[in-house]
Amino acid sequence: KKRIGVLTGGGDCPGLNAVIRGVVKAAIIQHGWEVVGIEDGFDGLLTGRCRQLSIDDVRGILPRGGTILGTSNRGNPFARPVEKGGKIEYVDSSNEVVERIKSLGIGALVVIGGEGSFKIAMDLMNKGVPIVGVPKTIDNDLMETDVTFGYNTALETATDALDKLHSTAESHHRVMIMEVMGRYAGWIALESGIAGGADVILIPEIPFDIRKICLAIEKRRNNGSRFSIIVAAEGAFPAGGMRVVKNSADATHAIERLGGVGEFVANELAANLDMDVRVMVLGHLQRGGSPSTFDRCLGSRFGVKAVELVDRNEFGTMVCLKGRDIGNVAIEKAIKQLKVVDPDGEMVKSAVNLGIMLGR
Ligand code: F6P
């Protein structure tokens, strides 16, 4: 009987369980294969933590956030941190992982992950492990797919938060800054900002000018709007400014931050405007919760497509969404560079035409 493995790697996001369920159901119902669920991403392959998944195991998980398999940002088999004499050294344990996959009788591996997991997947492919990828990230920064699952739910969460911030900002005549996730991409900030009626949106793709933000807020106040809403992507930074690495829990997931861009902008505005300013960092709330209808459907379709690709021996490929259709592309193409917002593109122009200030 054919056996396939499935794992979820990197940061979690809503819809992971829909993909796992899709993989398990399609593999068992369509082909009668066995599915091994690997726990905590690639880490489970190093330590051998895995379990067979039946249809019963995936019952009722569709509306659940997170991943029933667990995930990890660590566990890169090619750079496993080990402590030696009080120091951390990185060792290559990839041969053990390849052996583990063989001994478990896993004929192909479905990797549900983002850029980081796919880089590891490609290196394992080069060692002979047949892999199919499923693109996951709330940041929506993966090339070669119109959208990743998880992004839509994160957007809903951010837009809902903006709606709630609006009423309190208005009551107190305050400037409210909401900092959202997205790493180096401004997708969450831009789309939630448009949907939530933000006055200013700051994204990494457009370095901002703090004086111009002050002018925009003053102009609003002079026109009778005594409050303003700013959405700042965590990766946004001032023109000519320095980006410094802050609180990166581990090197593989390092993100350059301005010591908190929300905090930075708040301090600048408080010093330059005679207005009350507050910051809200939305944080990991954006990664949690029940997936939206869109993400449940996309995740399920991705899971089914991944099984189809395994069946057709189309390894080294990733499922993707193009228009309304599910397709597949080479993983290599998808990880060449990050997909970021075009600063001169339609979405930015539309925001400007709506009167939103983009920081420049
Ligand atoms: O890539 C997803 C993401 O949530 C980013 O938006 C964010 O910068 C990062 O992960 C946070 O990582 P961690 O969970 O390690 O704090």
From TrEMBL:
<dbReference type="GO" id="GO:0061621">
    <property type="term" value="P:canonical glycolysis"/>
</dbReference>
<keyword id="KW-0418">Kinase</keyword>
<dbReference type="InterPro" id="IPR012829">
    <property type="entry name" value="Phosphofructokinase_III"/>
</dbReference>
<feature type="binding site">
    <location>
        <position position="11"/>
    </location>
    <ligand>
        <name>ATP</name>
    </ligand>
</feature>
<feature type="binding site" description="in other chain">
    <location>
        <begin position="137"/>
        <end position="139"/>
    </location>
    <ligand>
        <name>substrate</name>
    </ligand>
</feature>
<comment type="similarity">
    <text>Belongs to the phosphofructokinase type A (PFKA) family. Mixed-substrate PFK group III subfamily.</text>
</comment>
<feature type="site" description="Important for substrate specificity; cannot use PPi as phosphoryl donor">
    <location>
        <position position="116"/>
    </location>
</feature>
<dbReference type="GO" id="GO:0005945">
    <property type="term" value="C:6-phosphofructokinase complex"/>
</dbReference>
<feature type="binding site" description="in other chain">
    <location>
        <position position="234"/>
    </location>
    <ligand>
        <name>substrate</name>
    </ligand>
</feature>
<dbReference type="GO" id="GO:0005524">
    <property type="term" value="F:ATP binding"/>
</dbReference>
<keyword id="KW-0067">ATP-binding</keyword>
<dbReference type="InterPro" id="IPR035966">
    <property type="entry name" value="PKF_sf"/>
</dbReference>
<comment type="function">
    <text>Catalyzes the phosphorylation of D-fructose 6-phosphate to fructose 1,6-bisphosphate by ATP, the first committing step of glycolysis.</text>
</comment>
<feature type="binding site">
    <location>
        <begin position="114"/>
        <end position="117"/>
    </location>
    <ligand>
        <name>ATP</name>
    </ligand>
</feature>
<dbReference type="GO" id="GO:0003872">
    <property type="term" value="F:6-phosphofructokinase activity"/>
</dbReference>
<feature type="binding site" description="in other chain">
    <location>
        <begin position="181"/>
        <end position="183"/>
    </location>
    <ligand>
        <name>substrate</name>
    </ligand>
</feature>
<keyword id="KW-0808">Transferase</keyword>
<dbReference type="GO" id="GO:0016208">
    <property type="term" value="F:AMP binding"/>
</dbReference>
<keyword id="KW-0460">Magnesium</keyword>
<dbReference type="GO" id="GO:0048029">
    <property type="term" value="F:monosaccharide binding"/>
</dbReference>
<dbReference type="InterPro" id="IPR022953">
    <property type="entry name" value="ATP_PFK"/>
</dbReference>
<keyword id="KW-0324">Glycolysis</keyword>
<dbReference type="InterPro" id="IPR012003">
    <property type="entry name" value="ATP_PFK_prok-type"/>
</dbReference>
<feature type="binding site" description="in other chain">
    <location>
        <begin position="284"/>
        <end position="287"/>
    </location>
    <ligand>
        <name>substrate</name>
    </ligand>
</feature>
<feature type="binding site">
    <location>
        <position position="115"/>
    </location>
    <ligand>
        <name>Mg(2+)</name>
    </ligand>
</feature>
<keyword id="KW-0547">Nucleotide-binding</keyword>
<feature type="binding site">
    <location>
        <begin position="74"/>
        <end position="75"/>
    </location>
    <ligand>
        <name>ATP</name>
    </ligand>
</feature>
<dbReference type="InterPro" id="IPR015912">
    <property type="entry name" value="Phosphofructokinase_CS"/>
</dbReference>
<dbReference type="InterPro" id="IPR000023">
    <property type="entry name" value="Phosphofructokinase_dom"/>
</dbReference>
<feature type="domain" description="Phosphofructokinase">
    <location>
        <begin position="3"/>
        <end position="310"/>
    </location>
</feature>
<keyword id="KW-0479">Metal-binding</keyword>
<keyword id="KW-0963">Cytoplasm</keyword>
<feature type="binding site">
    <location>
        <position position="174"/>
    </location>
    <ligand>
        <name>substrate</name>
    </ligand>
</feature>
<dbReference type="GO" id="GO:0046872">
    <property type="term" value="F:metal ion binding"/>
</dbReference>
<protein>
    <recommendedName>
        <fullName>ATP-dependent 6-phosphofructokinase</fullName>
        <ecNumber>2.7.1.11</ecNumber>
    </recommendedName>
</protein>
<dbReference type="GO" id="GO:0070095">
    <property type="term" value="F:fructose-6-phosphate binding"/>
</dbReference>
<feature type="active site" description="Proton acceptor">
    <location>
        <position position="139"/>
    </location>
</feature>
<feature type="binding site">
    <location>
        <position position="278"/>
    </location>
    <ligand>
        <name>substrate</name>
    </ligand>
</feature>
<comment type="subunit">
    <text>Homodimer or homotetramer.</text>
</comment>
<dbReference type="Pfam" id="PF00365">
    <property type="entry name" value="PFK"/>
</dbReference>
<dbReference type="GO" id="GO:0042802">
    <property type="term" value="F:identical protein binding"/>
</dbReference>
<dbReference type="GO" id="GO:0030388">
    <property type="term" value="P:fructose 1,6-bisphosphate metabolic process"/>
</dbReference>
